[in-house]
Amino acid sequence: MDALILRFDAPLMSFGGVMVDQHGPTDRFPGLAMLTGLLANALGYRHGDFDRLQALQARIQFAARWDVEPEPIVDYHTVDLGQPKMMGYVNGTQPLGWTTRGSPEGRGKGKATKETHIRYRHYWANGVMTLAVTLEGEGAPNLDELEAALRRPARPLFLGRKTCLPAAPVLLARVQAADVLDALCGYSAHPRIAENDEETLAACWPAGIPGGVHARTVSRYDQREWRNQIHAGRREYNEGRIERPAS
Q: Crossing angle, helix 143-151 and helix 32-43, to 10 degrees?
């Protein structure tokens, strides 16, 4: 099989997670929905292309490893809903808010609609991740189209949140391998791996592919029902460590 080798090299990355109150955490590895959004953005898909997004998500298979371990950081920020620019009104009474659909949506009349809200956003800082990605089955796009899109993305790409801009092109190469784990293990590591004296690297890969050391199978709810804009669907994957490749 053919696979594309991607590299996430950025000052900040965030891979989403289950939001708890005002905390927006990041998972250890990218989720399937996050990768779907990244690839769809490169392909020029729009937010309302529900069927195409769903079909793309169903075909993605990937493995990922941390070449350079990141540091967790938490961004503290506030949202002042009482600012004049946030306080337009619908019919002169209801506070106005904007949506990704390009139309206003009211926020109600309660006290909380005008106060300052605290938010904590979790990120990975200064890490480097390498991924092997392929598309299973037939359909559009094929791997040639995806490769071309990643070389010349239709829109700027970001790694989880829009503030997480890559420091280098995301696409590195196209390789042939037995599976995505084999493709990942066979590709050289980032030069900064010299800073790491570990013999193995943290990685994740599909549950049906054996390999790695200290591996365990875990469940993730990282798929998205794009039409209804909710996370739904569980999948299993392996998380463990793989041998450190040469840089």
A: 70
